[in-house]
Structure formats: structure tokens, C-alpha cells
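Mods, move this if it's the wrong board.
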Amino acid sequence: MNATQGGSGSGIVALRSAGRGDIDAIEAIEKAAFASVYERFGRRQILRMIDNPRAYTAVATLDGRVVGWSGMLTRTVAGVASARLYGIAVHPSAGGRGIGRKLAEDGIRAMRQRGARRIYLEVRTDNTPAIGLYRSLGFVEVERLPGYYTTADGVRMRLELDAVSP
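Not the wrong board. C-alpha cells:
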């Protein structure tokens, strides 16, 4: 994991593995970032992600305070390892500092180190900032998902790790 100077005159942004002691902070981030209870992680889901040996769960801190998190899971089907990005969220008070990008890049590195050949994710079609971020990281749209979210359609995206430099 790493630490970098944040933008906009802010403090130090650091990434580290999430632990059980981060559950309250992650839950607060989810509540602040997602209006719908159906589109955010609950306490039990967060705990399962942190405890799952196939998961990679990270937090971003700003001046020592947890302000973002990401969760990814690996799996192997027919001998091919792949990963799924389940979520990235940054507290709105810490937005605009590139924290979501840092978490995504960190997760991509971790999935590559675990041998994943591709990464999948789903995102709301109206979440243009996230779609722009994912495209800039090399993700491409592979499927439209009508009615995937409670109030919006979704899109499934994929990143071929063989096609992206480490």
C-alpha cells in the first residue's frame, strides 16, 4: 500500500488493508455515498468481505481518518482466475482528491498479483464520473443491465489485465 500527498491543499492520503476495526467507518462511508439502502453495503456484508480470504479489501485514509474503501473478490472458473470489483466508495467530504482512482489502481495491482486475468464490475449508467474513471483505467462496457439498480439501469464492464501495463 502507499501514501501520497492529496490534492487541493489536503493532507496525506494513505492506503492499507481493511480490518474489522474499520467496519464502522466503512459503513458510514456507504451511508454517506449511497442514498439507497439497496445499493450500499451493510455491516454484515462489509464484515464478510473483510474476513473472506478470496477478498481484497482496502481503505483510504486522509490524515489518518478512513475516508474511502474498496472491495474485490477473486474466483477461478475453468482454470481461469478472474476478479469482481464489488465496490469503491469515498466519503463525499473527501471527494475530488483522486482517492477513488487510487483505490481502483491499488485493487487492480492486487488482483494482478493474485493471478486474475480480468476484472468485472457493474455500475449505474447515470454514474458518469465512475464510468469515466473505469474507462480511463482500461475497462470496457460488455453488457447493458436494464433495471439492475432500484432507480437506474446498470452496465457491466470488464478489464483484461493482459492488455494493461502493470
